[in-house]
Each structure stands twice: as C-alpha cells, then as structure tokens.
Amino acid sequence: MTTPCHNVGAFVLGAPTSPRALVRHADLLTAYADGAIEDGREAYLSHFAFGPEMTAHYRANRNSVAGFAGPCWCRRLVLDIDRADLSAALADARRLVAFLHQRYPEADGNVPVYFSGGKGFHVLVELANHPPPAVGFQHVARTLAEAIAARAGVKIDGAIYDVNHIVRLPNTRHPRTGLFKRRIDPEALFRLDIDGIRDVARHPAGDGIPTVRGPVPQLETDWHEAGQATARDTGARAIRRGAGTGTPDGRAPRYLVDFFRFGTGEGERHQTLFRCAAWLTEQGAPPSLVAALLTEPGCDVGLAPKDVERQIGCGIEHARRQRSATAGPRPEPATDPDAFEQWAIAHESDPLPLEVAEGGRA
Fold first, then answer.
1. Residue 173 gets which letter from DSSP?
2. Using alpha carbons only, what angle is made at residue 315 by residues 311 and 321, rounded to the nearest 5 degrees?
C-alpha cells in the first residue's frame, strides 16, 4: 500500500485543459467511486500518484505539473481500450478481462472494468505486489500493461502512461455523450450488449472499486520481468547513444539526429524541439511535415501536447523570420518574372498574404 507521502494527485474539475489542483489522490478517487461526490461536471485525476517532490515542483512552476520528472506510483494500473466501434471495444474488454482472470486467478472477480461513457473501457489491474514509488515507475507500468495486452491479443492506448496523464473519474459525465463513467461488474460485462451498457451508464452509482484481498504471485513475477525489460531497453538506448558520439552526421545537426534516436533531457526539451523545428523549416520542410515529424518525439520526451505544438510553431516562425530578413524584398512579377518565380519557390511555405488568403478581399 502507498504511504501518506505518496498520495498526491493532480485533479482537474471541468475540461481536461482546466487548471490542475493537487489533492489527496486515494481519498478523492474513493469519494468519486463511492458516489460521495455528485457533480455534473467533467472531472479527472492523474493516473499516477506522487510524493512531496510533486508539491515542490508545482509550487516552483506557478501551479503547473508540466515537466515533472520525480518519483511516481499507482495502486491500480489502467489499461485503456478505445475504439471507434464500441462493439469492438466491448469484445476486446471481455477478452482482456478473461485473460486477466486466467493469468491472475487470485484476482478473479475483482478486476474493475469501467465503461468510459464514450468510445471504450478502462480495465484496472491492482498492483497487489505493492511495487514502491520510483523515478521511471511509469515506464515499467507501461511495459507491464503492454505485455499483458499483447498476451491477451488486445491493443491498448500507450499514451495513458505519461507521468502526468489524467483519467476521467468514476461516475462523472462524458461531455459529448452525456453518459457517465460506470463500473460494469464481470457478470454484466459478458451478458450485456452495447445498448445495455449504455443504459447502465445513463446514471452514476456509488458502487466503489473492488480490491484484491491477497498476494498475486504471477503479477509479482510479471512486474519484475517488466522492470528488467525496461532497464534493458534503457541501457540499449544509452549504448546506442554512446556509440553514436563519434563522427557527426554531415547531413543533419547532431541535436536533431539525437532527438529522433534518443530523445533529450528534461532541461533541454523545449529548446531542442524549437531548434529541430527551425532547422527543418530552414531546409524547406513545410509546416505540416515539420509537425508530423516532431509531434510524437516531442510527446515521448514528456512535453505536454500544447507545449509541443507551441515549440514547433515558434521554431517554424523563427526560421521564417530569419529567412525573410536575409532574402531581400520580393521582386515584382511584371518587371522581373524570372526573379519573382525563384523568390516564390523559396517562399512557398510562407503564410499567404491576407488578401490572397481571403480570396482577394481587402
């Protein structure tokens, strides 16, 4: 079980973009699951819980959790099944739960499953082996979750294991469908069809979260193996990075090559992403390609999606300003059509003038 010093959670009341407040993680989750809090608004809680390091980070960064790289922990690991076809999501949720009951028989009947109220299901695996909080805990958690899903033949969302990821709280309403995130007991999961599950989700319920009452030896083994696999992957990345510090790539700056291969450290993430976006733009890559190349690596190093988008945009704009400052004035097409054509090709990714963008209107 977690200790009081690792019971800090990031709580969001309202849309996911709303400010985060620090709360007692276990207490708030229990209150929503038990129905002690009745609120028609959206509400979210961080997947992982934190210790005093998060409190210090939050205060030092103007009440922001972005960029946190300290130890984290969770009691229940969420496996998120999200499909455009809800029937397919239900089939995969059933397949995953059946596998969990088979692999961890001590947890049979105590694997909580929630209909998200939207496009999928959250299947919770209680870490009954009680792994301690640690820096990088979330990476081992992801390795374990993906290994479980692979064995079950189910695809899950890996983005949920970002250290600051938030998850919709039980018994809160989905803003688009109006349905509630509701726990579906095992018997109902295998008996009800989609319409039946939607009917259950029309109202909240204070049915709590079932817990595993004893040790689960196979889960302890699986966690240990996930930790070893994560360590091997981290070590291999470090070896590859060390081996690549010799001759620099003559076609691209080292910081760009390293960013794609290995990511970057916490204190360099914003600057490196900015520099990569600027360099690619300078080479003539259009904004859509720059964003396509850098968005996923930016998120992988722990930046929030909004920060990734902002740094890429700033890098693109910086390169454009630099190019405009050195390119000279635009030639007039009527007096020097060849020079104008060359200028237009060099500036084809620049924003359109207002009168062109708006169809000639002044």
1. B
2. 140
Q: Are strands 76-82 and 113-115 parallel, antiparallel or unpaired?
A: unpaired
Residue 290 and residue 347: Cα distance in Å, rounded?
16
What are 116's two structure tokens? 């998200």
pLDDT digits (tens, 9 = 90+) for 217-272: 999 999 999 999 988 887 666 555 555 544 444 568 888 888 887 787 767 888 88
Check if the beta carbon of residue 281 is closer than 8 Å to that of residue 290.
yes
Segment 49-73, tens digit of pLDDT: 999 999 999 999 899 998 888 999 9
Secondary structure element (H or E) that encloses residue 80, with its range? strand 76-82
pLDDT of 125 > 80? The answer is yes
pTM (two decimals): 0.68
- Distance of alpha carbon 81 from alpha carbon 61, whole angstroms: 33
Domains of the chain (ranges; CATH) run: 4-229 (3.90.920), 254-352 (no CATH)
44 near 117, Cβ under 8 Å?
Answer: no
